[in-house]
Amino acid sequence: MATGQKAQTVSAPWSILRPKKRRHKDLYVALLFLAPSLLGLFLLQVLPIGTALVLGVSEWNIIDPIKFVGLSNFVEVATDATFYHTLENTLYLTVGLEVLNTFLGLCAALLLKNAMRGIDLYRTIYFLPLITTWAAVAIAWRYMYSLEGPINALLGPLGIDPIPWLSRPEWAMPAVIITITWKTLSWKTIILLAGLQSIPNEFYEASSIDGASRWQQFWKITLPLLSPAMFFALIIGIINTLQLFDPIFIMTDGGPADSTRTLSYYIYTRGFQNLRMGYAAALSWVLFAIILLFTLVQWVLQKRWVFYQ
Amino acid sequence: MKLRRRETVSLQLVTALGAAALLFPFLWMISASLQTLQEVEAFPPIWIPEVPQWTNYIEAVVNYNIGRALLNSAVVTTVSVVGQLIVCSLGAYAFSRLRFPGRDAIFLLFLATMMIPHYVTIIPLYTMVWSAGLIDTYTALIFPGLFSPFGTFLLRQFFNQIPISLDEATLIDGGNHWHIYLYVIMPLSRAGLGALGIFSFLGIWNTLFWPVLVINSKELFTLPLALAMAQGQFVTLIHVQMAGSVIACVPVIVVFLMLQKQFISSIALSGMKQ
């Protein structure tokens, strides 16, 4: 064939077209292109993960020599009352945040999918909290929550007495949840909005010809077809919540009375305030196990409520 | 769905109410940053300052280290983002365009590390930086931002959408892989580079945890760290602190307005959060 002959005459640089033949041909070029990434992967991922495995079975305050202690860190975790308390706080935060974020995020997505006047401006405003610096806005929220601050001033006319938001154990977690909802709500919105926009309009048209009400359309069309996006947002959202640091560092430092100390903040406390690197590493592996277990359970449970087209 | 006029009006109203609620903390932040100390501590709160106190901003920048921190954040973020775009795009090119043994296994390793929570790696990373004597240096602030498995993955997905016939055209013209990378792939991947650029910009500009660990001296504070530390030291100066917060938020809002589309479509695509 003529084309085959032509290809043969310029065959030298054609490695891309011939994947099966001479697979090693690009090896040296690939090494050059990959060298920075491989160095990064080794220094920032492989080496730290390996070190974390060693630290998990060691006792180290970073100054004295490191000491191998076997599984005693994990035994200590299992009997650590503060650990169980932080686990409860983490559950409280995660459930509270997911419920609020999913409900409000869905409402916002349903609003923002409509073509109305000024929609671009509205979308930008809804996404602002998500992108701004946690440290900056968390400080603002801390002052807004003060006893004589703007939030209590707004609640006053509604007949609500000033609430000691961040100074009482029973109020601190709700306050933190409200702030994180404000900050992360639009992340949910973006994912659900993309889900909503992928639902074909014909479904709504056909069902309204059949006499379905808006309410019925929402429950029978929108929600089932949105469930894959909701599932995705649930998994990633919870993984992110389990690793939150900034708002707790700025607003409460885990207090008052440990009421906002989550598992991830407890890792920071043990590792960097008490300098127990080994124990903190063991706790971080427990966090990893929780994330893994949770994701697997969700994966199994999704058959019951996630509807794929 | 066709909406009736009354529905349109009520939708618009609810959307505007939601926007007002989400904007409220920003508005309060700006208002407080322009008040006097007496005004900001008054009860009931004063919503609009009588005379805007622009000097609060000067005070924040000059006396409370915000100027230096702004400079540090700008340097650290610029170097990290540019470096990350280069490192990740080179790696992504190899995974998208080159054939070599073990390619898929290495790529799988990249993906697998994305599943490990930040908290597992940050303790050893800190001990590594400490052992290397790099505490309190720009190197410690910058090097973790230079590489990202997620960034490599994201760019590879974008590169894979570029037709391979363009590579062939370059090869016929006597070009090599470096030419394809520089003159074909990179110019055609502006959307992908923009998306990764804004993710890494926001992530590095906003990050607090890592600077808290590796930086002790004021001269090296990044903006989030300077704001967090000012909170402990000058607890009564709410108005100056709010000026600092506004200064920290302005650059991210500007960058976001420029790259909003890429940012939103990439979140929808990958579920990434900074």
UniProtKB/TrEMBL annotation, chain A:
This is Sugar ABC transporter permease. It is found in: Cell membrane. Its main location: membrane. Residues 87-298 form the ABC transmembrane type-1 domain. One of its GO terms (biological process) is transmembrane transport. Belongs to the binding-protein-dependent transport system permease family. It is a multi-pass membrane protein. The chain crosses the membrane at residues 27-47, 91-112, 124-144, 171-196, 217-239, 279-301. It comes from the Bacteria. Keywords: Cell membrane, Membrane, Transmembrane, Transmembrane helix, Transport. InterPro entries: ABC_transporter_permease (IPR051393), MetI-like (IPR000515), MetI-like_sf (IPR035906). It comes from Caldilineaceae bacterium SB0675_bin_29. Pfam families: BPD_transp_1. One of its GO terms (cellular component) is plasma membrane.
From TrEMBL, chain B:
Keywords: Cell membrane, Membrane, Transmembrane, Transmembrane helix, Transport. Its main location: membrane. PROSITE patterns: ABC_TM1. It comes from the Bacteria. InterPro entries: MetI-like, MetI-like_sf. Residues 70-259 form the ABC transmembrane type-1 domain. The keyword Transport applies. One of its GO terms (cellular component) is plasma membrane. The keyword Transport applies. It is a multi-pass membrane protein. The chain crosses the membrane at residues 66-93, 105-126, 138-155, 193-214, 234-259. It is found in: Cell membrane. One of its GO terms (biological process) is transmembrane transport. It holds the Pfam family BPD_transp_1. Belongs to the binding-protein-dependent transport system permease family. This is Carbohydrate ABC transporter permease. It comes from Caldilineaceae bacterium SB0675_bin_29. The lineage of its organism: Bacteria, Bacillati, Chloroflexota, Caldilineae, Caldilineales.
